[in-house]
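User: What would this chain look like folded?
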Amino acid sequence: MVLKIIRWVFGYVSFSITGKGPERFLNLAARDGFCLWDIQKKEDCHQARITRKEYRNLRVSARKAKVILRVEKRYGLPFLLKKWKGKRGLLYGTGGAIAVLILLSMRVWSIDVVGNETLSAYDIKQAAAECGLYQGMLKKDLEPRLVQQRLMARFPEIGWVAINTWGNTATIRLDEGLKIPEVEDTDKATNIMSTMDGQIVRMDVYHGMPEVQIGDAVTEGQLLISGINQSEKGEESFVHASAKIMAKTRRIFSVEIPLEQIKEEPSGEVLTRRSLSVFGADLPLSLQGLPEGSYTRTVESKPLILNGVELPVTFHEEIFTLQNQIPITLTKEEAKAKAMEEIKKKQEEVLKNDLEDGKVLSFTERERVENGSYFLELDCVCEENIAVEQEILFGN
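Assistant: Here's the prediction, encoded as structure tokens.
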């Protein structure tokens, strides 16, 4: 194989031998040190092959043997270059295209996500790029195990994930399993304390000794359930106390809404910018910069697909819709509606806890307009879980 490559690089010819003494010619050529191969006898001639340079020196042996040599076919790089001598541009272009194809074959062109149901493929690709898998990277630099571990840590919803490569495509195969709940450390001794003032309306004690009863009024930081158990003999043992203590509490929610506000409306003027992403590198196709003033921005991305294969080329289109800022004055009713929306969000954030969602039982409303703003305050009676675990610390 190596000998064939060497002969092709330096060039060789296939020639015919006709005349009265072809056998004598072959003997003379061998005696003079010429290397002939693929010697064959045809009906009316002999055929052989020899390197390009040695063929020129066969004339002396041919004259002595009274034979005629005629080139049948030429092989190798020198003849190929001679053929393309007047077409250097095409030759260089072909060579460059081959080099580009070789370089591109060493990289990841596209990334597919398979098996996702609730998770977005776009979010997974973005996370994969941060974890070490992105379009345009060298395939030899990809570490599938490391990317898999990082994706599992990034998305707890994923039960398992595998990274496979086929040609220039990397496929992220995953299965969305159940989210693994946090394991409670029950080895630590804990008490149950009150998070705020209130009156107990319900108690669900799982472990520990109750220190209060239904109907009792408690204060913030008070011991509700003790993690220290004492037997009839006076022996003490420590447990991980756990309970759900529902109590009536009082919370005040307030919000301020300025009456003078700015309302944005589309002006009808739209600015579009286009760009091309090749292997992760962005190439702008538009000369427009970012618009001045207020605007809303939407982005549309379309990957280039050829014969069902997603290529590492993506067209991006940014659409900026300019907005007119119109000053408006809210009425008291409009300001109150906005205030109630914000207070409702605050209540949902404050009253929601790990064991049960709290709720507002009743409220007293106070409102006023002052210094160009509307103030709303709700004095609420709530029902919520006030239990919190506190570790029991032991001295030396």
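The longest helix spans residues 332-351. If you want, I can go into more detail on any region.
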